[in-house]
Write a structure and sequence with these properties.
mainly alpha; 5 helices; elongated
Length: 147
């Protein structure tokens, strides 16, 4: 199997390679920035004074309390959206007319009865590699060519 271009960075345009590296580095720095409060908490637990300085002396707990309200609002909205979506699906697909149930397998006899032909003809149709069916105006089969 031939490898994709992603496995051959030397074949990429140098400008594209540097842009991708810059984007990757930017997002890694953002990811590390998101972990800073947790790292600060761990440092405070282990006796390093960064947490106390940020949260108590600089009043970081006030910003934390404000953000918690925003976080809970977002969580509430996302949870409400999921509950609404689940309720819609229960309403749409619930009950006896569940559209997600597998359909019954159509036997040759059922298919033959539907098309008003004999079952041996349907068996030949199923074995053929190419089947051309002509229909009349009333959706009845007028001619079948097996090749």
């Amino acid at each position: 199997m031939k490898k994709l271009i992603i496995y051959h960075p030397e074949k990429q345009d140098p400008t594209k390679r540097w842009v991708l590296r810059l984007i990757t580095t930017t997002f890694w720095m953002f990811w590390i920035y998101l972990w800073l409060p947790f790292v600060s908490l761990l440092a405070w637990i282990f006796g390093i004074r960064i947490f106390e300085y940020q949260m108590i002396e600089l009043g970081g707990y006030e910003a934390l309390l404000e953000l918690l309200g925003v976080y809970f609002t977002i969580i509430f909205l996302l949870g409400g959206g999921l509950i609404a979506w689940a309720s819609y699906n229960i309403w749409r697909f619930g009950g006896e007319s569940n559209l997600r149930k597998p359909r019954p397998i159509v036997s040759m006899e059922m298919q033959a009865q539907h098309f008003n032909v004999e079952a041996k003809d349907v068996e030949e149709w199923r074995k053929s590699q190419r089947l051309v069916i002509d229909h009349g105006n009333n959706s009845q089969i007028t001619r079948i060519s097996i090749t």
